[in-house]
Amino acid sequence: MRHRIFVPAAAVTAALLLAIPASAAEPSPGTPGVGDPYYPDYGNGGYDVSHYDLRLKYQPRNDRLQGTATLLATATQDLSRFNLDFALDVSEVRVNGKRARFATSGAHELEVTPAKPLAKGQRATVVVRYAGTPSQVKVNGFTSWHRTPDGGVAANEPEAAWWWFPSNDHPTDKATYDVSVAVPDGTQAISNGTLQSERSQAGWTRYAWRSRAPQATYLATLAVGKFDITKDTTESGTPVINAYSKELGENDGAARASVERSGEIAEWLEGYFGTYPFEALGGYVPNTDTSYALETQTRPFYSPAGFSRGSNASLVVHELAHQWYGDSVSVNRWKDIWINEGFATYAQWLWSEDQGEGTARELAEYAYDSRPADDAFWTVKPGDPGPDNQFHRAVYDRGAMALQALREEIGDKDFFALLKGWPKRHEGGDASVRDFIGYAEQVSGKKLGKLFDTWLYTASKPAAGPTGKSAE
Ligand code: ARG
Ligand code: ZN
């Protein structure tokens, strides 16, 4: 799914007549990336996916994943060949029912040549049969499939899909999802959205999940294991589905004391960000030894380690804040990661203030004061951190300081209008940091270039803190 800009037909015809050389009539291969400077080969050109239907089977005993992905796509050019991003073994590809030739290139590219080229605007049903042992498949030395004693889980950023389904792996091509996974009876499968059905047959239980709003590929998740699934609804009627590994041990209480508050926290966030953008919510905690959490759409992934010091509602605030900032409105390019992390961190500061544990202003000043000017922290630019520092603390903490600085500059009224206006403006789409700066200038009527240069684009400690006090 991609948001289109309307251009009058006459203008299109004129442009075609003037600009396009005769050779463009020949179908050509789609590019192997969307042109993201941090990750040139992520996503693909030439088509657009609107829906993923994943019908899978997973055996925890030997970490074997197999099944069929059916992608509904539309060609965006006359297309002789196109790529999918995928790392497991493919046995068959069909395009509109007919066998297609396929080959792998690089570690995560699958090149598909349909029997007949696709015309621009033509719909394509792409069926991919595959199998693999995802924990064993290393791309650039790592796998985003985390095996657990009773199953496994796909959750990582920005790469997660390659290990469990073929995709156009970039946040600018969002789609809806049906994820149906058969697992041995007594084992559960967790994914995004709502649970449409759960049926057992011949020793296997099939879980069918549906995610109805446009969803980025890295926000699609799958977890298999022995889970306790809890179901409830919020005061306003949104289904809340949470899942806890039955093997959380001593972290079980703290995990539940945090994630069970997801409905309450989402409703609290609505006060700042506007209506919750999705049809369901919740969270899940598999027994992985990972250290991070991830805002997988409607149902964030939490590592047990996040609850080792007791309840952590603040972490739930962070991941649920991403449902607006990151999931409903996604990055246009991965360098725009501040749009996600700066705001999710600022939401934690607002929560702290609400809990009487320190105001956003106090936390912003502390974050500034507690790091000396020669701390490497200040060398990372939150507005363009580079692929290696995409999740550096500076993107989060200096990113949130930038928001406090903005709040001081434009005042609470415009600041909170911005926080609510942005998710509505780009709902279900993607946007850049530059778009946000433009929007902030529009809402406040102020020139903000200097402020954002200081906080997002300078590789040194700003001379004055986020509340205007200067450094000692
Ligand atoms: N967006 C995630 C969060 O802040 C961060 C994920 C970091 N990924 C990683 N592999 N460490 O909640
Ligand atoms: Zn985050």
From TrEMBL:
Its EC number is 3.4.11.2. Keywords: Hydrolase, Metal-binding, Metalloprotease, Protease, Signal, Zinc. GO terms for molecular function: alanyl aminopeptidase activity; metallopeptidase activity; zinc ion binding. Residues 50-219 form the Aminopeptidase N-like N-terminal domain. This is Aminopeptidase N. The keyword Zinc applies. GO terms for biological process: proteolysis.
